[in-house]
């Protein structure tokens, strides 16, 4: 770990709890289409694979999207979701404990910090500014920045190439198996948080290199290993 220069962070479920606003938008969207509404508890399991899959799961009331749904329905659901989510003002979203303190210390210590999220890119800058964390990140990569999302490693590989780093010089910090798999696929280590969204499964089951209950423990891992 003393070789780490670049740290890539997931956003939702890692740095901030956005599910309350996502759940309201998803509920409004599916109801507008005449389908049964969804609860915040359901949406906590549905998030993590991008907005298209979230709305498909919400319409299906299941982790498995109904194969009978046609593309037009899913596209309309996504359009409505985006509209309602934009209107939310992200007022129910909040940072997790010790996020700003941890980012501040890492930035001051000279680490390159990047954000790699499956969230649609257009929503990310406003949320980062709203929670006063935009200034910490050298790179901000949304879910549509590349043709594939996590667990595909394309975004992590792009960061490695841009910053001239080897895989052992990057650490991925996230809360879901998509984050852990992306790290494994890129050949880098992973630091997993237990409090986020992982489809109801323990994050330890994905075999990350480190597991923590609080993001502040990342400083201990870096310090102890340095």
Automatic annotation (TrEMBL):
Reaction(s) this enzyme catalyzes, per UniProt: 2-phosphoglycolate + H2O = glycolate + phosphate
Q: Extract the Pfam families matched here.
A: HAD_2
Question: Which Gene Ontology cellular-component terms appear in the entry?
Answer: cytosol
Under the heading CDD domains, the entry gives: HAD_PGPase
Q: Which InterPro entries match?
A: HAD-like_hydrolase_sf (IPR050155), HAD-like_sf (IPR036412), HAD-SF_hydro_IA (IPR006439), HAD-SF_hydro_IIIA (IPR006549), HAD_2 (IPR041492), HAD_sf (IPR023214), PGP-like_dom2 (IPR023198), PGPase_prok (IPR037512)
Q: Which cofactor does it need?
A: Mg(2+)
Where on this chain does Mg(2+) bind?
10, 12, 175
Q: Which residues form the active site?
A: 10 (nucleophile)
Pathway(s) of this molecule: Organic acid metabolism; glycolate biosynthesis; glycolate from 2-phosphoglycolate: step 1/1
Q: Which Gene3D superfamilies match?
A: HAD superfamily/HAD-like, Putative phosphatase, domain 2
What EC number(s) does its UniProt record assign? 3.1.3.18
The biological process GO terms on file are: carbohydrate metabolic process; DNA repair; glycolate biosynthetic process
Task of the protein? Specifically catalyzes the dephosphorylation of 2-phosphoglycolate. Is involved in the dissimilation of the intracellular 2-phosphoglycolate formed during the DNA repair of 3'-phosphoglycolate ends, a major class of DNA lesions induced by oxidative stress.
Q: Which PANTHER family match?
A: PHOSPHOGLYCOLATE PHOSPHATASE
Entry's family note = Belongs to the HAD-like hydrolase superfamily. CbbY/CbbZ/Gph/YieH family.
Write down what this protein is called.
Answer: Phosphoglycolate phosphatase
Its source organism is Vibrio panuliri
